[in-house]
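Let us work through a complete example step by step.
Step 1: write down the sequence.
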Amino acid sequence: LPYTSPTDLAASSGAFLCSGLSEVEGLIFIPTSGTSGPGKRVCCTAADLARTRDFFRHGMQYMVSPGRKVALLMSGDRPGSVGQLLTQAMGDLDVSCQVFGFMQPGATGENAMLNRLCDFGPDCLVGVPGQVLALARHPEAARLRLASVLLSGDTATRPLCAAITEAFSCSVFIHYGLTETG
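Step 2: predict the structure and record it as tokens.
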């Protein structure tokens, strides 16, 4: 069988729909990973979204316990987004989850994010490796008292994970997954 390319998904996402259009409850738009080109649209049924929430709940239960807090440094404002699904999954575990979005680049963005995170006081931080590393390298990184970090959305090398572990004195976990497949 031929491979499905990002171009295939961007050009004709409807061709990949395996249910009736009336069953679609979530439409996830994924911008191109490059600097140009059409984005991809992925349609999700209620069952798809429920399976993703269940997957998040099962994985996160080993990283954070009831009554604790999770901070997410990814998007969460759209239905079916990582933030919305993770927040719902954490609610099932009696864990508070706050979506902070992606950090703005530069020292000003890092300072603002660190202050917001410290005000929230998360036990677990979920984010893209490069952004979490930028926080770990911040001179005041020790203000965050984390028990665990989950890295997702990009490559997380051993040296990067070691730097985050050292900065926050916590366990670091890596999740590899494709939005296109839940």
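Step 3: interpret the result. The longest strand covers residues 24-30.
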